[in-house]
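Hello again, I could really use a second opinion on something today. Take your time with it, there's no hurry, and the full record follows here:

___
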Amino acid sequence: MKVAVFGIGLIGGSLAIDLKKRGFASEIIGVSRTEKSANKALELGLVDKILSKEAAIAVADIIILCVPVNILVEELLFVLDRVDNQIIVDMGSTKMNIISAIHHHPKRGRFVAAHPMAGTENSGPEAAFSGLFDGKTCIICDKEDSDKDAFKAVKTLFETLNMNIKYMDAKAHDMHAAYVSHISHISSFVLASTVLEKEKDEEAILEMAAGGFESTVRLAKSSPEMWSQIFEQNKDNILEVLDTYIEKMYHFRNLINKNKFVEVADFMKKANEIKKILK
């Protein structure tokens, strides 16, 4: 199986490592937007060779799109226009815009829409590592619109990565992603911004930064370029989640302001119910 990876950063590079190491791919072909990234991927051994988009499409069996969401539709259409029986799968964090854009394409069946729920705050080829996807969840959207052989191959791909596969329609995916992933990043960015604005003494921040603070703001080290694009793609769902989040924050503030600390404890006890879901 020859696999072409468009975008060889954290996600694409980590995919490449384990698909080759675990025997799914006989050859990994890299496609990069920059020469620097291409050279680094070769240097690190993430890919076997670098080809142009056209050349990679021509020789690959599976094409994996790991490009930023703001150019994902453009790249997907470029690939769909040039494939015969090759299989295409994307790794995008949003799905409705992508699926809507290619819904009537004659090669729609060769595409499988996926979102592996894995990552770190780091980016670039240097951030890639083996095992990133182990035990994580992968969402496959609107699988009934993909050809059976394409779906089966992509399912095997994610099983090779030791991922737990779940199925959703694209609309539900984007709504749930806003709640469980996108709002977490927004909270982290806002908390980091708040602390930096109020606490000018960087040494004091470092001295007082315990595990709770570090884990909460870790996501604020993520790529602003990448996440601003994700927020743009999922704007409506994010605004809905933010409205609810802000409402809860105001309620919590009012309880403290009115010295209703029994109610504060009750609020947190209800929040503790998350332990039944996240073990």
